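Recall the central idea of this unit: under ordinary conditions, the amino acid sequence of a chain determines the structure it adopts. In this exercise we apply that idea directly, starting from the sequence alone.
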Amino acid sequence: MRCGKSNSRTALLSVVTLALFACAVHAAAPAPAKAAPVPAPAPAPSKAAPAAAPAAASTPSGPPPRHATPEVEKAVESQAEVREKYKEQTEEIEHALAHTARFRNAIAIILSVIVVMSVAFELGAERMQEHVSEKTKPVIDILFKELTVLGFIALFVFLAVETGIPQQLSDEIFGTPSELKEMFEFIHFLLFLIIVFYLVIVAIVITRMLRYERNWRAMESLSLKSSEDPSLTAEEAEYVSTRQRFVEDKITPKHKMDRGFPFCEYLVKYDGHLFEEIVELNPTTWAVVLILVAVARLYMMLHSESLKLVIFIAVGFLTWLASCCMYVKLQHVQASLTGYKARGAWLLNKQPTNYSSLSSDEEASKATLPYQRIEPPAAPEGWLGRFLYGDRAPTQQENLLWFKVNGVGFLLNSVRTVLFMVAIYTSLLWVRFANHFESAEGMLLFLGSMIFPSITVVFMAPAIVAKITWITGIEEMRKHRMAALLQFSSAKQRSVAHIKLVYSLRALVKDKDANCVLKGESAATSNKALATVVEEVFHHYDQDKDGFYDWAEFSTLTSDLGLPEPAGVLAVRSLIEGNGKFGGDDDLSKEEVIEYLTRCMGQPVAFTDAITESLMAQAKGDLGGNVGSVTAHELARLLSKQVSPSNDVDSRVSSLLLHLDAPIDVMGVTEAKGLLDRCVCAY
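Accordingly, the structure predicted from this sequence is:
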C-alpha cells in the first residue's frame, strides 16, 4: 500500500469537496424557521465567572446583517462591546493564572496525557499491523492514511481560524463572524463520518469476499478430475478447465508451471492485490465526486423538500444500477475467456453452459475460446480515441473490456467510486435524518433509503471484485511474476504435506506387511529422495535464513509435522549419533535436521499389489471386495486423512499428487501402486 502517496493533494481535494457537501446537506435539510428577534445585550461578565460569557461570544459581531433595522444594528453594536470586554477580562485572568502552581500543574498534566496517548496509539498500531491478516491490511493502512488527512485538515482549520481570515470572510458574506467557522467544523466532522462509513463498507466487502475465496479453495481439490467429469457442476467444470489452461500456459509461456500449482492461492493473492488498489482513494475518485457535486448544485435550486428527498434516494438506486451493469458486463467477459456462458437471468445465478456443446466442431471449440475468435481493432486514432481507449492496439482480451487498454483501470476506479459514493450517500443520509430517528417515519425513511446501497455493498461489490480478479488474472493478463513467486513458496508448503504422508504411509505399510521394507541400494535411493524433500521443508521453517535452527524453530517444525519432540539438542544428536560429527553448539545445522527427520520417518518401504488393492478398496468405500480401478481424486480423499482431520480433499494433497504426475483419469492397480510409491519416496 502506498500510504503516503498524494496525501496533501487528497487533503486539499477533501476540503474543497466537503465544503460543497456542506451546502448539499444544507439544501437537503428541512427549511429553517424564521429567525427569532435579536435578544437584548447581555450584562458584562464578572471577573469571577468568565465561563458565563461564551454565549455572548457566539453572537454576531462586526457589521450588521444586510437590510437590518436600526434596532438590530444597535443590538449588534452593543453585543460587540460586550464581547470586547469579555475578551479583555479573559486575558487578564489568564495572565494572573500563568503565575500560579495550578496553571503549571495543568500544563504538565496535559502534556503527559498527550505523550501517553501518542505512545499508546503507536503501540496499538504496531500490534494491529502485526496480527491482522493479509486481506485486512489494506483497511488498516487506509485507516492510518485517512487519520493523517484528518489531522492535516484539523491543523488547516485551526490555523485558518487563528489568522482571523474566516471571521472576516464570514462578516463579509453572512454578516456574522462565526458562521464560516462553524461550517469549517461541520466539514471536518462530515469528512470523519465519510471515512468511518467507508472503512465499514470496505470491511463488509472483505468479509463477503472470504466466501468466494473459500469456494475457490474448495474447487481446487477437484483439480484431480477432468473438466468433462459429469459429477462436476458447471461452475466446478469452469474452474477446473480454467486452471488446466493456466497451468499449461500455451498463450504466453514465460516459465514452466508445475502441475501442482495452487491456482486457488494465486486467485486469493491477486484478489488481495486488486483490493488494495480499490480501497485506496486517489485524485481520480475525488475528481469524479467533484463533478457530481457540481451537478448537485442544480439540486440545491429545487424548492420542494419532498422532491429533493426523492432525487436523493434515486442516487442510491443509481449506484446499485451501475454495479449491476458492471456485473453483467463482467459475466459476458468471463464467458468469452472460459468458454462458459450464463443462460440469462444473471440475478438468479443460473448455471452456465459449455460453449463447446454449441459448436459443431467440438475439438476446435475446446482449443479456441470465444474471445480468441474475435480480431482486436487497430490502435485508436486521434487524441480522443487515445484518451479513451489507450495509446496502443488492444489485445484480444483487452478488446472485451470497456475502453479497451484502459478497461482494467476503468473497472477499478468504478468500483472504488461506487463504494465511496455509498459512503458519502450514507453520511449525508445520516446527517439528514439524525434528528428524526426517534420517530417511526424518520427511521423507515432512513432504512428504505439504504436498501439499494446495502445490496450494492453486501452482494454486488464482492461479486464484481471476484469477477475482476478472475478475468484480469488469466489468459493474456496472467501475472507471471506473482505466479512464479507463489510456485516457489507453495513447493515448500507442499513438501510439509509430503513429509506427513511419508511418515504415516511408511508406518501403515509396515503394519500391514513387514516384508515391504526396502534394504540396500533401494533403501539408500529412497532416503536420498526423502532428504531432498526434507531440505525444502528445512528452508520453509528457517525463519532467519541463516542455515541453522534454534530450538524454537525446531519445535515448530516437529509440532507441525506431528513428530514427537525430543528433550533437547543433545537428545537429537544422540539419536543421529552426531555429537562429534556436526559440532556441539546449541543450534542445529541443516545436515542434523535432515538426518533427524529422515530417521524419524522410519525405514523406507514399497507398496505391494495386495496393500495397494486394500487402499484402493478403502478409497472406494468398499472394504469387502476387490477393486480394479480408482481415480486420483478418490485416492486423494483417503490420503488427506493422513494430513488433516477433515473428510474433504486437502488442497495440499491434491497439489502433491499432481506434482507426482497423478493421472486425471481412472487408475489401475499398477498405476496406483506407482503413485503411492512416489508418495513415500520409493523411487
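Strands lie at 340-341, 353-354, 548-549, 588-589, 630-631, 666-667.
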